[in-house]
Amino acid sequence: xxxxxxxxxxxxxxxxxxxxxxxxxxxxxxxxxxxxxxxxxxxxxxxxxxxxxxxxxxxxxxxxxxxxxxxxxxxxxxxxxxxxxxxxxxxxxxxxxxxxxxxxxxxxxxxxxxxxxxxxxxxxxxxxxxxxxxxxxxxxxxxxxxxxxxxxxxxxxxxxxxxxxxxxxxxxxxxxxxxxxxxxxxxxxxxxxxxxxxxxxxxxxxxxxxxxxxxxxxxxxxxxxxx
Length: 227
Known about the structure:
Blueprint: H1 4-14, H2 29-47, E1 55-59, E2 61-62, E3 72-75, E4 80-88, H3 91-94, E5 101-103, E6 109-111, H4 114-119, E7 125-131, E8 137-143, E9 147-154, H5 164-183, H6 186-208, H7 219-225
Antiparallel strand pairs: 1-9, 2-3, 3-8, 4-9, 5-6, 7-8
Helix pairs in contact: 1-5, 2-5, 5-6
């Protein structure tokens, strides 16, 4: 399991910086540079792919004020990075027909056939927000239909839950961000971006392998087939 100092030191080594960070809160130059760029690098890497380990399903609460011209507005959780799916309240009726629709453990909705997919109308929605009289901002999702929940990529602040290949990718993303302040080399920065894209692709492929779209066969059917 990686901690913050481990990831920062990976990024520092990528750009050729010999100084290491012992404590993310220390007052050294390298720690200050990493602190300034870390949250942006982390959130940008989370936004690059619908990571299964960062995916969450949340029930939505309606917002009192609905901006025109939308008929419905819902309050988004504060840790939203990317919305992956909106789940209308009426979709529950469809999921009772397993030959046509099903919902996976993350809440994402799937269709069993192209014909069934064509039956599901496109749901229009967009990100929005509102500001109250005290200046408080509320992040909203605006929609043309009633929503029960959303599936989204969340902001994961604890690096100890990051998969190893994600640690590798976000380390190169951070290296790209801190390269100019520390090395002042545009050539190294270009290389860091290329390596980030490479590691990001590897991490995304591994992430996609962490699921199955079909149920495992039951033991009785396996015994009948003999394999």
